[in-house]
Each structure stands twice: as structure tokens, then as C-alpha cells.
Sequence to fold (310 residues):
Amino acid sequence: MKPKIFIDGEHGTTGLQIRQRLAAREDLDMLSIPEAERRNPALREEMLKEADIAILCLPDDAARESVAMLGGGNSTRVIDTSTANRVNPDWAYGFAELDAGQADRIAQARFVANPGCYPTGAIGLIRPLTQAGILPRDYPVTVNAVSGYTGGGKQLIAQMENAAAPDHIDAPHFLYGLTLAHKHVPELQLHGLLDRAPIFSPSVGRFAQGMIVQVPLHLADLSGAPSLGDLHAVLAAHYDGQDVVEVVTLAQGAALPRIDPTELNDTNRMKLFVFGNEARGHANLVAVLDNLGKGASGAAVQNMDLMLTR
Fold:
């Protein structure tokens, strides 16, 4: 019997992307609510309880409501793409490459919290260094990032694309999260293994999807004053043996004239780079990913596939 998959919120940006990624899959039985019935709570509850795996593509409060609908006596497994459960210890964090045992934890979990797009890049760069003891856990980490505007969902997409909209945004690039209290900060701190909350400065560019995340570091303030090669070696060792995260060689990175945030669009891959100037003692760790791929829908499908192996 094919596993039954229900995307709760399939008509939103993330849900539509997941649906597209699963459209050609003949090994799944996709449950669906017509868009006109998407606010029918009884039908929604029925689909949630019938599914083997429910993927929640909803705002935080609605995601919590869906989990509550399942109650204690149901066996439906859940992947939540909202921020509601990313720091909940009862949920497996859905970044399979987080460490050597994370894919197994996801495979065995009933509840999986899909990572955020920005945190996927930042944690992918930070955690290997904190685990190795090179990046002190009390280091004053800063994370600077730019995303395609699809990361803001349908409302931001309309603001960016519809010139006739009263709240149209015509800027080629804009900074937000100006109070430095972005909802991703707790997730970044917890899963980055940081004792201090990082300073996170997100921005949006006038491109639909794609993402660059940067973590600048002072080499002299790291444990052992490592070289760029040392940082690269830690990242390469951490991601050795898997094919989703690629650590680009120092030579390949040095030969690049620029970094394109859209390079990995429509994939579930992520590239990590180590740039810097050793004479000045500066390093810049960079991640490139699709904010709708490894940063959202692609990661949800990856987690679903891991859960189906159980």
C-alpha cells in the first residue's frame, strides 16, 4: 500500500513547491483538499488523521492547531515547515546533514521540524566549527544574508511583482529585521551550538528565489588561530560522504569572480565556501542555496523520504 501524504496548506508558496516536487511520484498516495475547501476544519482534520505523513505549510498558530487536531491517539507523522517547533526538544530538527546521526533521528521521529532557509545556510557553516571547538560558543557571531522574495510568501511576492498594488515594493534590494529580533535567531543559536544569540541581518533582493548567507570571522579570535585551510578542512570532514552539501575547494572558490544566489535554484543542494584574507586575519564563510529548495520544500521532501525508510 502506498503511503498517504497530506500537504496541509498546499496552496501556499511552500506547499505548491512540495506538490510540484511530488507530482511525478507514483510511489505516493497524495491526499488533497480543494482550494475552495481549504478552510473547512472538519475536512482538514479528516485528511490529517488519514495521512501517514502530514506536511504542514502553515503559519505558526495554524501549524499548532493542526498538531492539536491529531490528538494523542493518532499515528500520523508530521513535518512542520513553520517556525513553531524548531527549538522544541520533542521534535527532530529536519536538517539531515546537521551531524552524523541526524538523518537517523529524522527517519525514526514522529514529529520533524523543517529548518528555516536562512538558518540552513548559517547553521550549515557554524555548527561544524562549534562542534570541532574552533568557533568558541561565546563568539559574537554575525550572520548577513540575502534571499529571493519568494521567501516572504504570497504577500511579498505580490508586493514585488504587482506594480499596481498599493503596497508595491520597487526597491532592487531591501534590508529588514531591523530590530535584530528575527524569528530565526533562537533556531540559529540553539542548533548552531552558540551560547550568545547571533546578530542576524536578513535582506531581500529583486530575484524570485535563491539565497546567499555569510558568516564573517576574525581568525585570531578563534581557538588556535586557524588558517582558512583549517576552517575548510573542518567543513569538508563534516560533510564528507553525502551529496547534498558541497564544500567547494579553496582553489575553486578563489577563482570565482562573484557568487550567484540563484545558482542552485530548483535543487535541494547547498554549496559552502571559505573565503578570506589571511594577511588581515579575516575569513568569510558563505552558503548558497535555493530558499525554496534546501531552504524549504526540498528539505521537506528530503525529510519525508527519510521518514518513509523507517
Summary: The mean pLDDT is 95. The CA atoms of residues 49 and 70 lie 6 Å apart. The chain has ten helices and 13 strands.
